[in-house]
Automatic annotation (TrEMBL):
It is an enzyme of class 3 (hydrolase). Residues 175-184 have a biased composition (Acidic residues). One of its GO terms (molecular function) is ribonuclease P activity. It catalyses: Endonucleolytic cleavage of RNA, removing 5'-extranucleotides from tRNA precursor. This is Ribonuclease P/MRP protein subunit POP5. InterPro entries: Pop5/Rpp14/Rnp2-like, Rnp2-like_sf. Residues 159-184 are annotated as: Disordered. It comes from the Eukaryota. It is found in: Nucleus. Its main location: nucleus. Belongs to the eukaryotic/archaeal RNase P protein component 2 family. GO terms for cellular component: multimeric ribonuclease P complex; nucleolus; ribonuclease MRP complex. It comes from Decorospora gaudefroyi.
Length: 184
């Protein structure tokens, strides 16, 4: 019996444009590595890849890739996915991921898909995802220990300021509509 051999691609979704319009400018690192919207599901990712492979390589590419294409792991909060694809044709999947510029129609958000690692086993791909998460935590702790204002706190303050200003605008609009209602 012949074993089917696969490759596992560790993928990051990066967002070059802000998904939420904010009056205050967020740091670029936070903006680019922002969480993926919850509406993006594993099925959308597989469909996106299949469509990309079909567009680039036609029916031949679709036939070669679609049999074992699967999203083994997906985290919307870290914008990370592990995608299983056939070993002999993983370059086709990589190329299709590289050419993706927007998320599917319900979301329609500009995106950059970056393949971080190609692995022969799911275990090594999972270890890479864990290693990258630990690296991010270590950097955040080092930044906090340096005495600088941590990025998380600065982002929280910016969001609070936006909420307060929006609340003041809504209160002013409500007061204006109440006074208009009394005069009539």
């Amino acid at each position: 019996m012949v074993r089917v051999k696969n490759r596992y691609l560790v993928v990051n979704f990066l967002y070059p444009e802000p998904t939420v319009k904010s009056k205050t400018q967020l740091p670029d690192l936070v903006q680019i590595h922002s969480p993926t919207p919850d509406a993006l599901k594993q099925g959308f990712i597989v469909r996106m890849i299949r469509d990309g492979v079909h567009e680039l390589f036609g029916d031949y590419g679709s036939g070669m890739v679609s049999a074992s294409l699967k999203v083994n792991y997906y985290s919307a909060s870290t914008s990370t996915a592990i995608i299983r694809c056939p070993r002999d044709h993983y370059e086709m999947v990589w190329a299709a991921l590289t050419y993706i510029t927007r998320l599917p129609i319900p979301l329609d958000i500009p995106v950059v898909v970056r393949v971080v690692r190609v692995s022969g086993t799911i275990k090594k791909a999972e270890e890479e995802v864990i290693r990258r998460s630990q690296q991010i935590i270590k950097r955040a702790r080092a930044w906090d220990a340096a005495g600088d204002l941590p990025m998380l706190q600065s982002v929280e303050k910016a969001v609070d300021r936006d909420r307060k200003s929006e609340g003041e605008v809504l209160a002013a609009v409500d007061e204006g509509s109440e006074s208009d209602g009394m005069s009539e």
